Amino acid sequence: MSCNGCRVLRKGGKDDCILRPCLSWITSSESQANATLFLAKFYGRTGLLNLISAGPRHLRPGTLFFSFLQT
């Protein structure tokens, strides 16, 4: 099943999706979609996914995504 981030980006979701753990701290599914869209418009879809996957694994579950939204 795809996460809200994958649905918004129209990307086929997988069990090892890198977006799902990044969005887990956002409670509302609509807010998850809005945050993903905002960052995808700023970085581009591929750029956002590459940026998340290039980040250290210990920062991926939420911290990295959270820091993108605060800057």
UniProtKB/TrEMBL annotation:
Q: Which PROSITE patterns match?
A: LOB
- Where in this chain does the record put each LOB domain? 1-71
BP GO terms, sorted: regulation of gene expression
Q: Which InterPro entries does its entry note?
A: LOB
Pfam families the UniProt entry points to: LOB
In the record, the note on similarity to other proteins reads:
Belongs to the LOB domain-containing protein family.
Name this protein carries in UniProt: Transcription factor AS2-LOB family
